[in-house]
Every structure is written in structure tokens, then in C-alpha cells.
Design brief:
Layout lengths: L1 H5 L4 E5 L4 H16 L3 E7 H6 L11 E4 L14 H25 L6 E5 L5 H7 L3 E6 L3 H11 L26 H4 L5 H9 L9 E4 L7 H10 L2 E3 L6 H4 L18 H9 L6 E5 L8 H14 L2 E5 L12 H4 L4 E4 L4 H5 L4 E6 L3 H10 L3 E3 L6 H11 L3 E2 L11 H13 L1 H21 L4 H15 L2
Parallel strand pairs: 1-2, 1-4, 2-3, 4-5, 5-6, 6-7, 8-9, 8-11, 9-10, 11-12, 12-13
Helix pairs in contact: 12-17, 17-18
Bound molecules: uridine-5'-diphosphate.
Family: Belongs to the UDP-glycosyltransferase family.
Protein name: Glycosyltransferase
Enzyme class: transferase
Length: about 450
């Protein structure tokens, strides 16, 4: 009896918050769990699961959904972020419990819930059914540490002066996550982010999409205060070992990438010549910023590939795409990993979302940092001053980066001495991040340890 039970695989429910920047890393982590011998069911909200593209290319991972109370429109259907979170917090646990019960009665009982740190109530559901509870942080260790210190009452919000936290460089207010430097603008979100740490005294594992070698001192500190393990970068392995393009894996995407147009255009451009511009899946630029950016790219006279989501297109100067067609390509969404891995890339002008930052570090592309909100300013600080992989141009009194600074920054990175140093560092970080997830690397060992502990409990 004992032996036959041991032969079963542990079954992890991997529960993601319904945004692109959380689905990608949790899906890739799921693949690593499978590779190490676990079974996985991926779970997100009903609305999100209807919206995702790419399900057919991920047949190995069954997808299930729970309700956030807005099955037909997601967060956009709620009257405010507060209303959304309140409803989700009520309905989420009920529908997650229903899912667990359904899986138990259908003979596929879960042994563990790996839940997104934004959804701390999932730990109560795990414990109600005697399952292992593992929280998954999708932000950097530095950003997580800021919210940890807020939750413990060790960091006064709003932050108005320089802050010194263990294992981190001194952070000025402009380097802090926007929720703590400007909490009035985001009251609901600050509560949610601080709440990530509210019940961690009861959790079995704390998994973070970060790399030990990138934030070593801080990870050592975290490991002393909680069962903390780094498991990143969650970049698909096919991008780490230079596999042929046709073997490359894709994630699940809210937006449909303009794959062929993008890759065909890139393939005609010389090595290291293209500026790739993207602000991720959520950020909305001020119209002034969009116009300055458009002008800066034009003035730089470089090739550029610019992702402008449909909802942002109106902010472009009139006829801009037509006027710049000799030099630029504007798409509504692209296969970003494939773009960053392309030899034509010279620079990534980024909002510094954590996934984009890790992807650029892993694929060795220097960055120009124009953070907008949430964790992006803290990532920008690390890109420039810790990993020395990019520059962050100044903002003016409108909070906007001017076109001349964009132009200068492009030149400095692509032609200047500092750019040379960044490219050298890029080679170093690419090697280090790749090794972390390769057989025997720091993250690989942590994932193996996690799965082995689940197997032991069967
Ligand atoms: N992404 C993409 N195509 C695009 C722009 C972004 O595939 O045109 C992906 C990108 O590779 C990353 C994710 O979307 O994995 C964005 O996550 P990030 O944390 O960088 O930013 P967020 O969207 O959460 O602000």
C-alpha cells in the first residue's frame, strides 16, 4: 500500500492572479515542476481563461478556473479596484474550494496549492484540505522586501526620504515602488501588496521568481526569516540553450502577437541595430510621454520596433507610423522573448516590469529604463546601479522623459563607453541567470528540493 501510494506524482494547483505579468512566470514555473516529476493544473479566473491565446500550444498543462465575481469582464467590469478586490476575496476562496473538492471526487486530488502572493486567502483553502501551501512571488526580492518591511511596521509610508533596508542599495523615494512613494494614488493596491505577508508565518514554502546570484545578500537575509527559495528566471528553457526557432515554446497571452510581421522585419536589420520599445501589458503612458518618445525615436535615426497596444494607439502623433516607416515598425503586441533573443537587437527601452527585466538580463540586452509605476522604479534602480545593465534618463517637471534625453541615452548605450560596459555586463548576467536554472544551478536545486518534499509527503 505504502509503495503504490509513493508511485503517484504530487499534483500542484498553480493559481495565478489574472494579469499577463503573473500568468507568464507561473506557467513557466509549472513547466519546471512537470520536468521535475510533479503534475500540474494551472488555475486562473474564468474571465482570464476565456481571454488567453496559446492554450493549444500548452497541451500538457490542464487549465481550470475559479471566479473573481466578474466572469464576463474581469477587473475592467468592476466599478473600482477596491470593488474588484473585495468581491474576489469573497468569491475566490469559495470557488477555489469547489475546485479542490471536484478534483478530489474525480480522483485527481491536489497535494499542494502554489498560489500567487496577491491571493493570500488561498493558503486558508490549502490548509482546510490538508494541502501544502506555497506562496509564489512574481516580483523581485528587493520589491518584496519593501512590502515585508511595511507589513512589519518597519517602513513608514509614504516614503519621503532615503531608505536603507538589509541587502539593498540606499533607495531614494523615486526608487521605491509607487505604492509606497505615492500611496494616495493606489490605496487598494497598497493594502493588497502589504497583505501578501499577512499570513506567511503559516506557509510551507515561499517561492520567488528571482535569481539568487542577482540579489544574493537579500536572499540570504530572507532565508533567515522565512522558508524562502528563488526559482527564476522563468524564461522557457528553449531560449536558454539557443534551440532552433521552430522548437521554441510560447506562453499564454492576453494579446495576439504580430509574430510573422515582427520577425520578418527584424530579420532584415543588421546585428545590434534595433531599439525595441515596450511598456508591457498594463502601463498607460501620459500623452506627453508618448509624444516625447515618438520624437526621441525619430531623432535618434535608429531602427525601432515599438509595441503600442491598441488602447494606446490614439496617443501617437498623427501619421507617425507612415512618416517613420523607413526606420520603424509599430505593432500592437510581439513575441517579446523571440525579439529579445534576436541578434538584430541593440537596446531594450523598457518600463522595467519584472518579467521584462529578467528576460533582458537572461537574454543579455542592455536597457533604457523608463519606469511608470508599481515595482518598476525599484527594478530600474537595480538595472542601472546594481547590475549596471542600463541607464535611467531623468524626468522633467511633468514627470516625463524628454525626447533629447531619449535620443542621448540611445546614443550613449548603443555607441558610448558606458554602453560597452553594459554589453560586457550583459554577457556576465546572461551566463549567471542561465546557470541558475540549468541542471544543478541555484534555482534548479530549489525546484528539485520543493518537488522532492511533495513526493516525500505522498
Ligand atoms: N510581452 C510580450 N509581448 C509584448 C510585450 C510584452 O510577450 O509585446 C510579455 C513580456 O515578455 C513579459 C510580459 O509580457 O513576459 C510583461 O510582463 P512585465 O512584468 O514585464 O510587465 P507587465 O505587463 O506586468 O507590466
Amino acid at each position: 500500500m505504502e509503495d503504490s501510494r509513493k508511485s503517484h506524482k504530487p499534483h500542484c494547483l498553480v493559481l495565478s492572479f489574472p494579469v499577463q505579468g503573473h500568468i507568464n512566470p507561473m506557467l513557466q514555473f509549472s513547466k519546471r515542476l512537470i520536468h521535475k516529476g510533479a503534475g500540474v493544473t494551472f488555475v486562473t479566473t474564468r474571465f482570464m481563461s476565456k481571454t488567453l491565446h496559446g492554450l493549444s500550444s500548452n497541451p500538457s498543462i490542464p487549465l481550470e478556473s475559479i471566479s473573481d465575481g466578474f466572469d464576463d469582464g474581469g477587473i475592467k467590469a468592476a466599478s473600482s479596484p477596491e470593488a474588484y478586490l473585495e468581491r474576489f476575496w469573497k468569491i475566490g476562496p469559495e470557488t477555489l474550494s469547489e475546485l479542490v473538492e471536484r478534483l478530489i471526487s474525480s480522483g485527481r486530488p491536489p497535494s499542494c496549492i502554489v498560489y500567487n502572493s496577491f491571493l493570500p486567502w488561498a493558503l486558508d483553502v490549502a490548509q482546510k484540505y490538508g494541502l501544502v501551501g506555497a506562496v509564489f512571488f512574481t516580483m523581485s526580492c528587493a520589491v518584496s522586501s519593501v512590502f515585508y518591511h511595511c507589513q512589519k511596521g518597519l517602513l513608514e509610508v509614504p516614503v519621503r526620504k532615503q531608505v536603507l533596508l538589509p541587502g539593498m542599495p540606499p533607495l531614494e523615494p523615486q526608487d521605491m515602488p509607487s505604492y509606497v512613494s505615492d500611496p494616495e494614488s493606489y490605496p487598494a493596491y497598497l493594502g493588497m501588496l502589504v497583505g501578501q505577508f499577512s499570513n506567511l508565518d503559516k506557509v510551507d514554502w515561499v517561492l520567488c521568481n528571482a535569481v539568487y546570484e542577482l540579489e544574493q545578500e537579500l536572499v540570504d537575509w530572507f532565508m533567515k526569516v522565512m522558508p524562502f527559495r528563488t526559482i527564476g528566471p522563468t524564461v522557457p528553457s528553449s531560449y536558454l540553450d539557443n534551440r532552433l526557432q521552430q522548437d521554441r515554446e510560447y506562453g499564454l497571452s492576453i494579446f495576439q502577437p504580430e509574430h510573422d510581421t515582427t520577425m520578418k522585419w527584424l530579420s532584415t536589420k543588421p546585428k545590434g541595430s534595433v531599439v525595441y520599445v515596450s511598456f508591457g501589458s498594463v502601463a498607460e503612458l501620459k500623452i506627453d510621454q508618448m509624444q516625447e518618445l515618438a520624437m526621441g525615436l525619430k531623432r535618434s535615426n535608429r531602427y525601432f520596433l515599438w509595441v503600442v497596444r491598441s488602447s494606446e494607439e490614439d496617443k501617437l502623433p498623427q501619421d507617425y507610423a507612415k512618416e517613420t516607416a523607413q526606420k520603424g515598425l509599430i505593432v500592437t503586441w510581439c513575441p517579446q522573448l523571440e525579439v529579445l533573443a534576436h541578434e538584430a537587437l541593440g537596446l531594450f527601452l523598457t518600463h522595467c516590469g519584472w518579467n521584462s527585466t529578467l528576460e533582458a538580463l537572461t537574454l543579455g540586452v542592455p536597457m533604457m529604463a523608463i519606469p511608470q509605476w508599481t515595482d518598476q522604479p525599484t527594478n530600474a534602480k537595480h538595472i542601472m546601479d546594481v547590475w549596471k545593465m542600463g541607464l535611467r534618463p531623468p524626468v522633467d517637471e511633468r514627470g516625463v522623459v524628454r525626447s533629447e534625453d531619449i535620443e542621448n541615452c540611445i546614443r550613449e548605450i548603443m555607441e558610448g563607453e558606458r554602453g560597452k560596459e553594459m554589453r560586457e555586463n550583459a554577457g556576465k548576467w546572461r551566463k549567471i541567470t542561465k546557470e541558475a536554472v540549468s541542471e544543478g544551478g541555484s534555482s534548479d536545486r530549489n525546484i528539485e528540493e520543493f518537488v522532492a518534499s511533495l513526493i516525500d509527503k505522498l
